[in-house]
Structures are given as structure tokens and as C-alpha cells.
Design goal:
The structure holds 2 protein chains of 2 kinds. Chain A is of the alpha/beta class. Chain A contains 27 helices and 22 strands. In chain A, helix 19 links the parallel strand 13 and strand 14. The longest helix of chain A has 26 residues. Chain B is α+β, with helices and mostly antiparallel strands. Chain B has one domain: Cytochrome-c3 Hydrogenase, chain B. Chain B is built from 14 helices and 9 strands. In chain B, the strands form 3 sheets. A 4-stranded antiparallel beta sheet of chain B has the order 1-2-3-4, covered by helices on one side. In chain B, strands 7-8-9 form a 3-stranded antiparallel beta sheet. In chain B, helix 11 packs parallel to helix 13. Classes of the chains: A alpha/beta, B alpha+beta. Chains A and B meet through helix 1 and helix 2 of A and helix 2, helix 5, helix 6 and helix 7 of B.
Chain lengths: 747, 386
């Protein structure tokens, strides 16, 4: 190339040959250059597909994505009302958000031009049509081969059908530490599970703790809202897993098994030290709880932590309620149940077993000797189908038989049996009876019939599958007609085809095809179509109390019209264990509110104080804003305007703090544990006094008002200083973030 | 510019000033000027037109990359590292990914390794074309930038097609690369290579054999051969001084040891040979990419890694290096076993070339050659400011 050391003078002019060529450049805007198939241009988001999990915002390394509540969308199971909003002033187009999207709803387009003088126009809410509503073709999209998320579960080891069908040994083996950490690492911590959990458990937090191998922290997180984690780790209905964002494209996180792993990893003798739950000094007030099931135990736990004397009345010989006398041992071993119950009892709860309220002790006497009474008696009365033949002695109620199995009482086990019902209880009794049959006769001959067809059977899918594996014959979609009896002995169950269970409006209204009749042979029939409460113990209160339909009318804290009486558990909501636990927790707060309210020594209930302070703060904010408007543009009021601005910021932060205190389920116990009682009393009294000051007098903001506001602010500051718990700070952070988001979008 | 010209004692040296007692004066160049691919200033002390002292001023592009990385998840940093060197971003991505792979003992599928080499070499090609244009611009030859930047765009088109982004590719990921070739990609790469190869004679005529370039570049900014190693020179600048040193050969990574290529060297070590060594490397790189396209095996392009939000990299430290278009590029990464890097240090060639060596070479050079000298060293300011 370098033929001439000096270089050429003329050859550069060869460039002139290109003069006639079409240039590489294009003329914008008359010409447009199409972007490539996987171009990372402006985002689009399928808003219906999007579940608002916020994982895109989580992975965004520039904080360009924020989740904001969308007007018109409501949170539902597995979905939030939040959707991503993107700040293109921050976005770096890395498409990590697309690659991690749990639903594949978020994608990028081939659109790449946006020109505007208005900076706010770079802050967009992506929908299906793209930034300019131009429906550009998609660019960078999720790829099925390259997937950030771990969509498959860590398999759970369980006993095979042949190992389990004749014994009541627990089926599921549980995770090892390695398996649990692997499973926990799949979590994207979106919090849909928490929203779905009736008890609002801090699921992402404890999964994270498991992943970090901080088991005690996992336990503490669980105990915040659920004092029966061992039980729930085995038999919870796990709405959380139904809601899990990982379940959209893959398999939900095994949240229940992770909980079980964490709690199994804590030996019962170390509960006290590891969970480290301080019981505050008793205040001398006493509470009676009727029924030591999940709801009763849950209420007892939170009340005893708040310093109440709690007595549990239980009609059965042991505490546990449905968890012990309803759920078979192969699903929930008794020693596991005892672990949870023993811990609650060990905190100072008095347990009176073999004491049936209504017979051994009356509700009236409880009312007179206790400050408040909670009833959590559950659904222990079996419902009958009422078809001809149900009065035969060989027709049983599943709930009675399950209790007999627990109590190790004798009952007939026949070679051929029929179970009516398609729920989990029906499966529980069927699988228990199948085990008894296998042990007694060496084989299973048991039929389960249900009104519901296979696809809408209410029992858990795994229960049905495992039941089939164990040799149970299923005949779904059949309605019982008659129990055929010859010579006073049951021959079988006659059924007709069920053509529909629910009417168009979803109400229970079964219809049958009476021409399609089948007979299922069996000498024993077990009815398991639901349970009812036995409320006979209400006695004279049955008339005075208010009802809402069949159930007792209660407020948000499960307080009935008899203000000393709280109704919790299956008799009011559910029925399931976790809902029972949730009602117990809420009612414990209700009891606290109720008892503090009638206390005469000046301490009013904490929730109320917080709410009063909150509304007070809001009023102040409104006044300051108004005053600011008045002061603006007036030079003589400049100094005041400056003061007002400072105050406004103070008010805003106070509001956030109060908001955080209000939403935190732990606040009540936490404040009780952290604050010296005197301070609590005086400071809250101070707030209430402030509230009673007449703030509405006068049109201008006087210096007196400003000084009072400053005093109030100082007080809140003290309050925060006193409540310097990590958790509280954590929720504050979350809240602050949320407020920032909404402020940005809607201001 | 007259208000910028001050005597060393601070008095004004306005045109027509009588006193010649202060023979030296200070001149500020930059931070925006044609001599460099970014914002970077020089504070020169001149005597007449000759530079007697040079001081570089960096920091105009400081975004604290190294510190930022400590605050972000391992996966998030793949979107940051490419920004450390705009014209040649891929060595950053590849080094970052390879550092994690070394710490976490991650295997990269063979196809992904070939794709990485392809991307690295395309990036080198693009970077060299950029340098040709930039160098020509510093001496007033403005047709060359139009040609080479426009030809570079054809490579960016390929990047867009493969990685979804033209400049910042965000394509290398620990465990492999983010996407496989789109359909028909290999043949389009070949087309572009053929095109660029076909353009080289035009470049020679227009630029490399241009009398003006020879006159201006030969003998400018000679980096003494005996000082080259001592001063820490690497990459094309070192090879222009006659040392056949190349990380791709000396400490082979990815699949470079399976590819055949020679290391071109030149002896003169001046601005012209630093330019010409890059001209030779364009040919070398085209050869490497063709081999990659011939040899690339089928298979997966990514080895699945854990959920990026809960991804811990085992504790340890690692030093990985590669040959970028600017010289030796390296990442030193320390992990404490957490979800974020404990420390990442980026060793770029530009601090050595663009600060220390430049300051030395500028002394004795005339003012009109300062920009050219800077560009011939091919330093990248954001990399200095990392």
C-alpha cells in the first residue's frame, strides 16, 4: 500500500468517484429507518396480563420504573392495582425488565423516537399501544430459552402410595436445607402472597430469611401475624401459592413447605430464645376464649403478648380443635401441633380442657368473671344430606369419625364403604378410612361421590390424586338419592346424575337427571357435605345478640353487638385454619381497643390515638396549605411563608410516620414492648389534648398555632425516637417510597 | 481565544503586548475539542508554539462506575459496565461477565464463547473505524470521518440486529450471551466484512497514503521503544513500538486460542505507525470474525443462572483481562459472597495512554499536533474517569 514514502497528492481525489452515489444517511422526517426485530425501543405493557408484581421495578438498575396504583384497577388474588410507569429520563434500555417479567406482559417495541419540549412527556405509562399510540411491532421480547426466573419447583419428596396407604405416617418429607434455600432463591419478593394471605403473613421476608439461612428471623417474621406456623407449614390452604407471581408462567414457590422447613429447623426447646417474644407485664385484665382451635389460640397468643390474662376453655381433652380432631395425622402429626400449642401456652395462657361452655360452665358466668369473652367454637356438627336412610346407625358423620380416630375410639370399619362429599374433609375421612380398610382387610374398597364434577371438586387436587393412588374410587357429579337398606342393613347408596351444582348467578342450586341412576355398594355410609356450628351455649344471649343472616353480626374487629363478646374462627369466617388465625389476631386488637376504651385512667386505645393524630395532621396540612396560598405573593409575609414551608414538610413526614404505625400489624405489641408505660400514657394524652384545642378559630395562622404545631412535630419526633425498631423503619421506608410514587404521578 | 491566553505571572498577554519577559504562557484545550472521544481537557504550557509542559485534566465524565457497581446487584451491572468505554463497550461486558464466571465457576457454552469473540471483534472493528475518522478530523481531513463513521454504522446495524442496541449492547451476561443469532445473521456479517474489506483501498487512497497525513503524522509523538514497557503501554500503541504483545495470544480467553491470527507490529512508534497498526488490525479482525463464522458450533448460548434478584456470587477475588481496541483491559473483582460485588476495579488502557504517556509525549510537540497526538493514542475519557 505504501508504494510512496511521501504519500500521494492526487490519489485522495479518487474519492470524487463517490459523488454520484446515494448517501448512507437518510432524510428525517420524510424517510424513516425501521428498527431491527429485537430492537430495544419504547416499552409496551399488556395491562390485563400484567399482575403488577413490580419485579421490573425491582431489577431496574436506574430506578426508572415505578409502580403506581392505576385508577379503575383493583387488587385481586394474584394481582395488584399497581402497574409500571417508566421514566425515560432514567431508562437505559437494558431490557432486564423484559427478561425478568413474571408474566411476559412487558415488552419493548421498535419505536425509538420521541421529541418533546415538555420533560414530563418522558414519564410514560406503557400500555398495549406504545408511547405514541402507534402500535409499533414488538422489538425485544421475552425469550423462552433465556429466562431469568426459575420457573420450576424444587421437587418435594413424599412417600409413595404403597408406603403410605396403610399407615398414618406423615406423607410429605420436607425440604433439606439445600433444597429450601434453592426454593427460596426463586422468590422475586413481589408480595402478592402477603396480599392473598388471610393473615397477611410477611412471606417475602421469611423466604428471604430462609434464603439467607437466618432461620430465627424467618420464625420471628412468621410469628408477627401467625402463631401457628408449624401447623400452617403443613396444612394451610396456601392462597399465597395460588397468588404467587411465579405461578403465572411456571410453578408457584412452595411457600407452605418453606414455612414448614423453617419451623422444623427450630427445635421446640429453643422457641423461647429464638423467637424471643417478650411478654409485657400483665395489666390484670382477664379474657376468656372459648375453644382452643386455631382462632382461639391465635387470639390467646396476641392477647397474652399485650399483657392480658388469658384463659382458654376447651371441651375436648386436648387443645387444637379442628387441627387435632379434624385433620388426619398423616397430614399434620400431633407432635408438630403440640410444638405450636405448647409455645403459646408457655407464654402464660391458662388452658382448661374437658370444659364445655354451656354445660360445664355458662357463658353468663364467663361474662361476669372476665373482662371480655371470645368465642371460637368452630364447626363441629356434621350436616346430613337428609336422604332416606340417613337415620340408619351405619350412617356416620365424617367429623365424628375423624375425632374418634384422633381419640383412638373404636368404630366399625367395613369392607365396602361409601363417602358422600367432595371437599377436603371428605377426602380426609375417605383417606383415613382407606388406611383403616387396608390395615384390616388388606385392600381398599371405598367410593367417594360428590355433587361436583371432577373439575369443580372443592378438594385440593393433590388430595384427590393421592386418594386415587391409595385405591379410592371417585364418582364425581353424582347426587345422593337414597341409602338402600335391606333387613336393616345398608346395601349401598343410590345416586342420580347431577347436571348442575350452581345456577347462573353462582348460587348453590343443584339439578339432577333422575333417569341416570347408579347404585354404589357399601355397608357403611359416611356423610361429609359440610359442618355447622353448635351455638346452643349462647343461652339467653342468643336472643339479645344481633345477627347478619345466619351468622352473628360483627364489626371489623369481630366484636358483636354485645360489646364484651367477640366471635372468631370458622363460625364467623372461613372455614379454614389460616382465616381462623387471622380472625384471632384481628379480634385480639379489637379486644385491646375495647378494654382500653373503657379504662378510666386516661390511656385511650392506641389505634384511636394514632387515628386522631393522623386526622389532626391532615387538618394541619390543609390549614398550612391554605395559609401558604394566602401568604404567597405578599412580601410582608415572606418570612411566614418560609416557616410554613418548613412546617409543611414536617407535617408530611409526620403523616407518613403515623400512617406506617397504623398499617403495621405489629405496632400495638411493639409500642407496648418498647415504650415505658408512663411515656406512652403522657405523650398520647398530649396528642389528645392537642386535638381538643380549637384550631378552627381565626382566619390567619397565629404564632400560637405555629408553636403548637412545632410542639406536635417535636412530639412525633420523640415518638419515632422511641420506636426505633428496624421493622418499623422498614415499613416506613416502604410507605415513603409508595407516597413518593403516587405524588410524582398525580401531582 | 485571546482571553484564555495568560502569562504565567497572571498578566494579560493580549495581542500587541510589548513585554517578552514572560516567554511561557498557559493554554487550556477542551474539555470539548476534536482530539478525543469525549470530554477531556489539557492544560498546556507553551513557549511560542511548542509545548513545554502538559497537564491533563480528567473527570468531566466521572459517573463513579466502580462505586455504583458496589451498590447494584450482579445482574444490574451488566447495564452499567458498557458505558465505561463508549466506542468499544464489549470488552467491559465480557470482562465483567468473565470475572463473575471465574468466581462462581460458571461454564459458558461453546457457542456463546464464539459469539462473544465475534462481538468483541466487531466492536474492535467499529472502534478502529471510529479512530480513523477521529484522527483524520484532528488534522482537517474531513472526508475520512464521514466515510469511516458511516461504514462503522454498518457494524452498529449488525449490533442492533444481534443485541437490540446499536451502541450499548448489554449483551454479555454471566453464563453466556442474552440471545442467539437471528436468522441469516452470519451471512449479513460476512457481507459487512466484505464491504469493509473492499473499502480499505479507498481508505488508503483517501487517507493512509495521503501526502498531508504523512506530512503531519510521521515522526509525531514518538513513544520511545525503551520507555514503552516501562510506561505501561499496551495494545496497538505497544505493537506500534515493535512489541508483539497481545492478550488474545499471551493469555488467551474465550476461544481465541482456537483461532489463527498474527500479531502485526511496526517499529516507528509515532502517530502514523499507531494509526497504521490499527489499519493492519482491521484486516486481522476481519480474518478472525470469518473464522468465528466458519467454526461456530450449534448449541445453547446461555447457561441458566439463579434468579438474579437472589443471586450470590461466592466470596473471592479475581483478575481477568482482555485485549480491547485500546489496549489491555482488565477487571479486578472482589466478592464477599453477597448479592452485590464488594469491589470492582476497572483497569483500562486509557489512564496509561491518555494521561501519563500523553503528558510525556506532548512535551516538545507543537500546538497544532497536540490533538492528533492525543487521538493517535486512542484514549477513552469515560474509561479514565471510571
Amino acid at each position: 500500500m505504501a508504494e510512496n514514502k511521501l504519500g500521494s497528492v492526487l490519489k485522495p481525489f479518487l474519492a470524487l468517484k463517490t459523488l454520484g452515489e446515494k448517501p448512507d444517511t437518510i432524510h428525517v422526517p420524510s424517510e424513516y429507518r425501521e428498527a431491527c426485530d429485537r430492537y430495544r425501543g419504547f416499552h409496551v405493557n399488556d395491562l390485563d396480563k400484567c399482575i403488577g408484581c413490580g419485579t421490573c421495578a425491582e431489577i431496574c438498575d436506574n430506578d426508572a420504573i415505578r409502580m403506581v396504583p392505576v385508577v379503575g384497577r383493583e387488587a385481586e388474588l394474584g394481582k395488584t392495582e399497581y402497574r409500571p410507569v417508566i421514566d425515560y429520563g432514567r431508562c437505559c434500555w437494558c431490557a432486564l425488565c423484559v427478561d425478568i417479567c413474571t408474566t411476559n406482559s412487558l415488552n419493548m417495541t421498535r419505536e425509538y423516537t420521541h421529541i418533546d419540549e415538555e420533560t414530563n412527556s418522558f414519564f410514560i405509562f406503557p400500555d398495549e399501544n406504545g408511547i405514541h399510540n402507534k402500535k409499533f411491532p414488538k422489538g425485544w421480547q421475552a425469550n423462552k430459552d433465556i429466562n431469568f426466573l426459575d420457573l420450576e419447583r424444587v421437587p418435594m419428596e413424599a412417600l409413595g402410595p404403597e408406603q403410605r396407604d396403610s399407615s398414618f405416617v406423615e406423607i410429605v418429607k420436607g425440604f433439606t436445607k439445600q433444597q429450601a434455600q434453592l426454593e427460596a432463591s426463586r422468590c422475586v419478593a413481589c408480595g402478592l402472597c402477603t396480599a392473598a394471605c388471610p393473615a397477611g403473613m410477611n412471606i417475602p421476608e421469611y423466604i428471604d430469611a430462609i434464603w439467607r439461612d437466618d432461620i430465627p428471623e424467618a420464625g420471628r417474621q412468621m410469628y408477627k401475624t401467625n402463631p401457628l406456623p408449624d401447623v400452617c407449614g403443613r396444612i394451610c390452604t396456601h392462597n399465597c401459592e395460588t397468588a404467587c407471581s411465579m405461578g403465572v408462567r411456571g410453578e408457584a414457590i412452595s411457600i407452605r413447605w418453606l414455612k414448614r422447613y423453617a419451623m422444623d429447623a427450630i427445635p421446640s426447646e429453643e422457641y423461647k430464645t429464638l423467637i424471643n417474644q417478650r411478654v409485657v407485664e400483665s395489666e390484670g385484665r382477664s379474657i376468656a376464649i372459648v375453644g382452643a382451635g386455631p382462632a382461639g389460640l391465635s387470639a390467646a397468643y396476641y392477647l397474652v403478648l399485650m399483657g392480658y390474662k388469658v384463659t382458654l376453655f376447651e371441651s375436648y381433652p386436648e387443645a387444637g380443635g379442628m387441627m387435632r380432631y379434624g385433620i388426619p395425622e398423616y397430614r399434620l402429626p400431633y407432635d408438630i401441633l403440640d410444638k405450636d400449642i405448647d409455645f403459646i401456652i408457655s407464654l402464660g395462657v391458662e388452658l382448661k380442657t374437658n370444659t364445655r361452655v354451656g354445660t360445664d360452665v355458662t357463658l353468663e358466668s364467663l361474662h361476669s368473671s372476665y373482662d371480655s369473652v371470645l368465642i371460637a367454637t368452630g364447626l363441629h356438627q356434621g350436616r346430613s344430606t337428609g336422604v332416606p336412610g340417613t337415620d340408619n346407625p351405619m350412617v356416620f358423620q365424617s367429623i365424628d369419625l375423624l375425632a374418634k380416630i384422633t381419640k383412638k375410639e373404636e368404630f366399625p370399619v367395613e369392607e365396602k364403604m361409601v363417602v358422600i362429599g367432595g371437599g377436603n374433609v371428605a377426602l380426609d375421612i375417605a383417606r383415613s378410612l382407606a388406611r383403616k380398610q387396608k390395615a384390616k382387610y388388606g385392600k381398599v374398597n371405598l367410593i367417594v361421590t360428590s355433587l361436583e364434577s371432577r373439575d369443580i371438586m372443592p378438594a385440593d387436587e393433590e388430595e384427590i390424586v393421592e386418594g386415587m393412588e391409595e385405591g379410592i374410587e371417585f364418582h364425581p357429579g353424582r347426587g345422593p338419592e337414597e341409602i338402600v337398606i335391606k333387613n336393616n342393613k345398608i346395601v349401598g347408596l343410590k345416586t342420580s346424575k347431577c347436571t348442575r351444582v350452581f345456577d347462573e348467578e353462582g348460587r348453590f342450586s343443584p339439578e339432577f337427571d333422575k333417569d341416570d341412576i347408579e347404585l354404589y355398594e357399601g355397608v357403611m355410609v359416611v356423610e361429609s357435605i359440610g359442618q355447622a356450628p353448635d351455638m346452643s351455649y349462647l343461652g339467653t344471649f342468643a336472643d339479645s345478640i344481633e345477627y347478619d343472616g345466619r351468622r352473628i353480626k360483627v364489626d371489623e374487629y369481630y366484636q358483636s353487638s354485645e360489646n364484651w363478646l367477640f366471635v372468631i374462627g370458622d363460625i364467623i369466617k372461613g372455614p379454614d385454619v389460616i382465616t381462623g388465625i387471622a380472625t384471632g389476631h384481628t379480634a385480639a386488637q379489637g379486644v385491646d381497643n375495647f378494654l382500653r376504651h373503657i379504662e378510666a385512667d386516661g390511656i385511650t386505645k392506641i389505634d384511636d390515638i394514632l387515628r386522631i393524630a393522623y386526622s389532626y395532621q391532615k387538618d394541619q396540612l390543609a390549614q398550612i396549605t391554605q395559609a401558604e396560598e394566602t401568604a404567597s405573593g405578599k412580601p410582608e409575609l415572606e418570612e411566614l411563608a418560609g416557616k410554613l414551608d418548613t412546617l409543611k414538610n414536617q407535617e408530611l413526614s409526620s403523616l407518613e410516620i403515623l400512617d406506617a404505625l397504623l398499617v403495621n400489624p405489629d405496632t400495638r405489641i411493639h409500642l407496648r414492648q418498647e415504650l415505658p408505660r408512663e411515656i406512652l400514657k403522657d405523650d398520647f394524652a398530649y396528642i389528645t389534648n392537642l386535638e381538643s384545642l380549637d384550631m378552627s378559630s381565626g382566619d390567619t395562622i397565629s404564632s400560637g398555632v405555629i408553636s403548637r404545631l412545632s410542639a406536635a412535630y417535636a412530639l412525633y419526633n420523640d415518638l419515632i425516637q422511641l420506636t426505633r425498631s428496624k421493622e418499623l423503619k422498614f415499613s416506613l421506608e416502604i410507605l415513603r417510597g409508595r407516597n413518593d410514587q403516587s405524588r410524582k404521578v398525580f401531582s | 481565544m485571546s482571553e484564555l491566553v495568560t502569562a504565567n505571572d497572571g498578566s494579560s498577554l493580549m495581542p500587541g503586548a510589548k513585554s517578552l519577559e514572560n516567554r511561557e504562557y498557559n493554554l487550556f484545550i477542551g474539555p470539548n475539542h476534536p482530539g478525543v472521544e469525549g470530554n477531556f481537557a489539557l492544560k498546556l504550557t507553551l513557549e511560542g508554539d511548542t509545548i513545554v509542559k502538559a497537564k491533563t485534566e480528567a473527570g468531566f465524565l466521572h459517573r463513579g462506575f466502580e462505586k455504583l457497581m458496589e451498590e447494584r446487584l450482579f445482574i444490574q451491572n451488566i447495564a452499567i459496565v458498557c458505558r465505561i468505554c463508549v466506542p468499544d463497550p464489549d470488552p467491559n461486558e465480557e470482562n465483567y461477565a468473565r470475572a463473575i464466571e471465574a468466581l462462581a465457576d460458571i461454564e459458558v457454552p461453546r457457542r456463546a464463547q464464539f459469539i462473544r469473540v465475534l462481538v468483541l471483534e466487531l466492536s474492535r472493528l467499529a472502534s478502529h473505524l471510529f479512530t480513523f475518522g477521529g484522527h483524520a478530523g484532528t488534522i482537517g481531513l474531513y472526508t475520512m470521518p464521514n466515510w469511516s463513521i458511516s461504514d462503522r454504522d454498518r457494524i452498529l446495524d449488525l449490533f442492533e440486529e444481534l443485541t437490540g442496541g446499536r451502541v450499548y449492547h448489554i449483551y454479555n451476561m454471566p453464563g453466556g450471551v442474552r440471545r442467539d443469532f437471528p436468522a441469516g445473521f452470519a451471512s449479513r456479517v460476512r457481507d459487512v466484512l466484505d464491504y469493509i474489506e473492499g473499502r480499505l483501498p479507498d481508505y488508503d487512497n483517501l487517507f493512509f497514503n495521503n501526502r498531508i497525513l504523512r506530512k503531519r503524522a510521521v515522526g509525531i509523538g514518538v513513544l520511545p521503544r525503551e520507555r514503552a514497557m516501562e510506561w505501561g503501554t499496551t495494545g496497538p500503541n505497544l505493537r506500534a513500538a515493535g512489541f508483539a504483545h497481545d492478550v488474545r495470544k499471551d493469555d488467551s480467553y474465550e476461544v481465541y486460542n482456537e483461532l489463527e491470527f498474527d500479531i502485526p507490529t511496526l517499529k516507528d512508534s509515532d502517530a502514523y505507525s499507531r494509526l497504521m497498526i490499527r489499519r493492519k488490525e482491521v484486516v486481522q479482525t476481519i480474518g478472525i470474525i470469518r473464522q468465528v463464522l466458519d467454526k461456530i458450533p450449534e448449541g445453547p448460548v446461555w447457561n441458566k443462572q439463579p434468579n438474579p434478584l437472589k443471586w450470590r456470587v461466592p466470596a473471592g477475588d479475581v483478575y481477568v483481562r482482555s485485549e480491547s481496541s485500546k489496549g489491555e483491559y482488565a477487571y479486578y473483582m472482589v466478592s464477599d459472597g453477597g448479592v452485590r460485588p464488594y469491589r470492582v476495579h476497572v483497569r483500562g488502557a486509557s489512564v496509561t495512554h491518555g494521561v501519563h504517556i500523553l503528558e510525556n509525549l506532548l512535551v516538545g510537540t507543537r500546538i497544532e499536533d497536540a490533538s492528533q497526538l492525543m487521538f493517535s493514542l486512542d484514549a477513552c475519557p469515560p474509561e479514565v474517569d471510571r
